[in-house]
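Q: Sequence in, structure out?
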Amino acid sequence: MLISCLGVLVGCQSPPQMTTMTARVEKVLSGQTIEVTLLNQQPPVRQQVRLQGIDAPDRQQTPWGKNSLEQLTSLIEKNNPQKLVQLELDEPNPNALTQKPGDKSPIRPGEQNQRLVASVWQNQILLNVALVQEGYALAQLPRETEEVNLNKHQTELLRAQDQARVLGVGIWNPTQPLRLTPIEFRRSQPNPQPTSQKALPKPPKKVPQK
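A: Exactly. Output:
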């Protein structure tokens, strides 16, 4: 019964009733970052997009980082040969959403390398929630991020994380748990990268070594 409910959580969602940006995924960089071509730009613009409201294991966190990247790739490619997704932007640019063919790109020179923050949809599946539900990423609480806008899918993400924890899947697997949250792991490295995120107050429970 619980597993059936999990299917309802993700499978019955539909994209929000708002204008979204269509993009083609060119590369999956990590379990929370993709590189896309924004198809409504003239000319099309290559852009990095970070999935909003989640924190996936670092690629160096073996095996969780690799698993997360592979799962995101699988979700994007499922029944989707062109790798098209819909981006629900955190801070959408009105010009970008309403741009007509022939208009100049609303993204100014030098902005192409800046990451967008978005909820990413593929075939009516919200990938942000799917990754958390399946134990491939953590949900971020509002106080743990400095994103300007409140994530409208926060409740769904936290519910998905609670269910993943109960089922013990992915990073919550008691036989191979994620021992450090991604932010804790990055801070433990010799040359940690600057970050605005804060560590989760309740990381996955550690299992004593036998």
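The radius of gyration is 17 Å.
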